[in-house]
Write a structure and sequence with these properties.
By secondary structure, the protein is an alpha+beta fold. It contains 15 helices and 17 strands. The strands form 6 sheets. Strands 9, 10, 11, 16 and 17 form a 5-stranded antiparallel beta sheet that branches. Strands 7-8-15 form a 3-stranded antiparallel beta sheet, with no helix packed on it. A hairpin with a 5-residue loop joins β12 and β13. It starts with a helix and ends with a strand. The protein binds heme C (5 copies).
């Protein structure tokens, strides 16, 4: 064999190997392993789902509570739609794109199961009137089972539209309404119906992006003792104006009826679905829900000051009111932080940390309780589509506390006042500034708790 022939042969082998590798890489890039399997896809006709307006014709109070809730707004929420567009920009890796396209499964669930939209890049202007109303009556109340405890595993059994509404599942086992059939559903009384959406995993990498259900599941309120057990509904579907219904406040029943003519019941579950977000209801001129979110936040935590040394104080934050970590949900975005201010006897500020600047941006060294995602190589990422790992996690679990030691300069003199405040806002201004479209913000900053000490 001549030398050229050997060279040609090895060149061919190298080429073949390179091609094989390329093909393998392409196969894996097109179909990266997914935590959501196709076997659980459900397909319905859009006409099977009934407009919430129709349900509201009888369930008027429940309808008024649900209107402008984050569930109602889940598809239209301008913060969500812009963040979703922002995440999709400039992605090239298949696993990243797969995650960035997946949001509609929870945010537009009726559309997702009835054909449109299937992904975030589908033209939202073409979404039907019913799916555009987000997480709605005829979605939750036709759920019959759960196939996984994350990424919305609800299994549905909708009716055939208004002419044949089918069975609506709920907490009563003794009712036969005229318009629709009704049946008792244990699922609806269980935290699991909430948890399957309130646990979010990266569809390609499996990273835990939101873990509200898991935090609750591991906590003391998931108690086998019915006296101590508090479900998601036990706080969030007891809240109404004037009744924050947290772990540190009473959660009295809400007697009434499910329609103006239906029988009186000891408790009608409220449908405001208020969490911590007061900015979004304000964008839709719903001051009542904004106030309820503030009330919830103001009964979520306690804060203490301990003077450790002449020039050092410890600030302790206890999660006393939430059924899950503090904060919870989108904790890579949510900002719960400590602001510390030392003022002299004339009220002049001599030391401060954690105060937003004139552009509403927090200083880099702010003590903040959150999660930070990484790209798999230890570099922080803000786009969850790229989240392969959790780099840090300073959320405060249920019933636990976190503390931080602050050094004070100057040393407090007699008559000085030290104030520590626990503050919350639902999104950093730095991220809002990068979103496409009209500028958003500043979002409201809510004082959750505060404590002062006079030296
Ligand atoms: C996110 C899911 C969800 C949405 C959206 C939702 N519900 Fe409910 N609803 C529930 C759950 C869960 C219960 C029962 C709670 C329990 O037993 O712990 C309930 C209870 C009810 C009941 C029984 C009476 C009561 O309130 O206790 C009626 C009637 C009802 N819902 C109607 C509606 C209507 C009408 C809408 C739309 C305006 C709606 N629901 C939207 C989850 C939902
Ligand atoms: C024509 C009036 C009317 C309309 C329209 C209506 N409902 Fe009802 N619904 C009732 C009555 C009456 C009850 C029984 C209330 C009771 O017994 O306390 C009821 C009960 C329920 C229950 C409780 C079932 C149980 O067994 O726990 C749910 C859930 C429910 N409705 C959901 C809906 C949904 C979703 C829609 C819209 C698709 C809707 N309803 C439309 C009248 C209506
Ligand atoms: C189909 C998925 C789904 C189900 C089921 C669901 N949620 Fe939600 N929930 C969401 C989404 C998505 C949002 C945020 C919507 C948005 O971006 O505006 C949300 C928002 C909320 C908020 C407001 C959070 C805030 O920041 O203020 C609360 C509270 C809440 N849900 C409680 C519940 C409870 C309680 C249940 C069970 C009865 C439940 N959810 C069931 C998907 C779901
Ligand atoms: C013991 C009462 C209690 C229980 C039980 C409870 N929560 Fe909450 N929840 C709160 C309080 C208080 C807040 C406000 C503080 C915060 O944001 O964590 C809150 C806030 C939230 C938020 C908004 C978080 C944010 O900062 O964006 C969501 C979403 C939520 N809850 C969902 C749930 C779900 C889902 C369950 C069940 C798995 C649940 N909650 C169980 C009390 C409760
Ligand atoms: C498995 C269900 C699920 C999926 C999939 C999902 N989300 Fe959400 N999303 C939620 C829940 C639950 C909340 C409420 C949690 C909270 O308030 O902290 C939420 C809240 C949000 C919010 C906060 C809205 C506000 O007004 O503050 C944004 C932004 C958001 N999601 C963006 C996305 C994007 C972008 C995607 C896709 C890359 C996505 N979500 C996919 C369940 C989901």
């Amino acid at each position: 064999m001549s030398k050229t022939k050997v060279r040609i042969q090895s060149a061919v082998t190298v080429c073949a190997l390179v091609c094989l590798c390329l093909v393998l890489v392409m196969v894996f890039r097109v179909e990266p392993p997914s935590v959501d399997t196709h076997a659980e896809e459900q397909a319905f006709n859009p006409d099977q789902f009934i407009d919430p307006e129709t349900c509201g014709g009888c369930h008027d109070e429940i309808m008024a509570q649900w209107e402008n809730s984050m569930h109602h707004l889940s598809h239209q929420d301008p913060v969500y739609t812009r963040v979703a567009k922002f995440y999709l920009q400039g992605l090239t890796e298949a696993g990243h794109i797969q995650e960035a396209e997946s949001c509609v499964k929870c945010h537009t669930p009726v559309g997702y199961v009835s054909g449109f939209p299937k992904k975030v890049s589908d033209e939202f202007a073409h979404v039907g009137e019913i799916p555009a109303q987000g997480i709605q009556c005829d979605y939750c109340h036709v759920a019959v089972d759960i196939n996984k405890m994350y990424n919305n595993g609800l299994v549905l059994s909708p009716g055939q539209g208004e002419d044949d509404p089918g069975i609506k599942y709920g907490p009563f086992d003794d009712t036969e309404p005229e318009f629709h059939d009704a049946a008792y559903s244990k699922l609806h009384t269980d935290s699991k119906i909430c948890g399957t959406c309130h646990n979010v995993k990266h569809v390609a990498f499996g990273t835990d992006l939101e873990t509200t259900y898991t935090e609750w599941e591991k906590g003391p309120y998931n108690s086998p003792d019915p006296e101590k057990h508090i479900s998601c509904q036990g706080c969030h579907m007891y809240q109404r104006p004037g009744v924050p219904a947290t772990a540190s406040t009473p959660r009295p029943e809400n007697p009434g009826s499910a329609t103006p003519d239906a029988k009186q019941r000891p408790h009608i579950f409220t449908h405001y679905f208020v969490g911590a977000n007061s900015g979004l209801p304000q964008m839709f001129s719903d001051q009542e829900k904004a106030d309820m979110a503030v009330a919830r936040l103001q009964h979520a935590a306690h804060i203490y000051l301990e003077v450790e040394k002449e020039n050092a104080v410890r600030v302790v934050v206890a999660n006393t009111g939430a059924g899950h970590s503090l904060p919870t949900g989108l904790t890579d975005m949510r900002q719960m932080w400590l602001e510390l201010t030392l003022a002299d006897s004339d009220g002049n500020i001599v030391f401060q940390t954690g105060a937003p600047d004139e552009n509403h941006v927090l200083p880099e060294d702010t003590v903040i309780f959150n999660t930070v995602f990484g790209d798999g190589n230890g570099n922080p990422v803000i786009n969850i589509a790229k989240a392969k790992e959790i780099l840090s996690d300073t959320r405060i679990p249920v019933g636990e506390s976190a503390s931080h030691l602050f050094e004070l300069a100057p040393v407090p003199q007699i008559g000085y006042t030290l104030t520590a405040r626990l503050l919350y806002r639902s999104m950093p201004q730095k991220i809002l500034n990068q979103l496409p479209g009209e500028p958003l913000g500043p979002l409201p900053v809510v004082e959750m708790a505060a404590v002062s000490k006079i030296f």
